[in-house]
User: What shape does this take?
Amino acid sequence: MIVNPKPTNPGQPGKPTRVPQPPKIEKGKVPDAKRDGTIKDVRMPDRHADGRVITQKPLQNGNGRVIAPTHNNITIINNNTYITNIRNTQNNWNRNDHGYGWHRWGGYDVCHHYDNYGYHWWGWYIGSVYFWTRYYNDYYWWYDPYWHRYCYMYDGRWWWRDPVYVERVYVYTDNSYYRYNDSTGGVVMQPDPTPPVETPPDPTPAPAPSEKVYTSADGLRVVKVSGDGKKTAYLYDASETPAFQPVWLGDGVDEVRFKLDDAGNLAQILTITDNGSFGIFDKDGYAIQAPGNGGAPAQPLPQNTSGVPDSSLGQSLSKSAAFSALNSGAMGW
Assistant: This one.
């Protein structure tokens, strides 16, 4: 069943500007909490370099949960001058010195500590809060105290790679981890079902492990497939100012593919369902080829409010010449 639109707004995902491609990190270059120590091994200073008592509080949410440095925090620390200063300090550091040193950079107090495991820590005291990160292998690393994982910063986001299976990459967002994989014309994210080692003070229900979030390569469209048995797919405009409300693309969706034009912009969206049907939509969710319509021009399809699949929109994949063309590449997917 493929119907556009369905008058339900399940909540809009975040608004990416483009799809990042996280860099590969060699095995042995990912800090391991069990082997390399954690922020718990660092004694938090209680005074600034000038003797003032530290009044900043740890970076937390309103429920006391430690959170990763936010977009605004990342914007501050991802400064070329600060990174150059960090590199110079670490490259010339006396490895026998495990004390604490303060710096004043751009109006911010920054504290440095070299721990007993051989890693450099940098404490950022910004406004009313503070947070600490490692700087190692040319990345900032934030330690997640609940999952006991080291996440590295790249392209304005926090990522985690399994120290053993480094080819597995996860993006950390909304206090959850999502497995991050390439898909046709974009990427697909699926929740990591691993429970935390330590329960956060505000545990939130984990996303269903079978939930999938597809993002087009240009970062402007997101299709979210629910993790329940219905596998309902909604299309979102991820632009800074969305041009439309979420559009229902159908139930029973197993896979989503994006087709890009020669300039790398999204042109079409393909949904493949578990009941032997598929649909092709333009970037705004209008049907280009609904099964059985002969490839009619893009137009909204009538609403089906009965709750019963509209068999006139269904088409057996095994009997579909169009789907065979899709799989063979004849239709450019």
Remarks:
- Residues 216-301+310-328 form one domain.
- Residues 176 and 278 are 31 Å apart (CA to CA).
- The first strand starts at residue 57 and ends at 58.
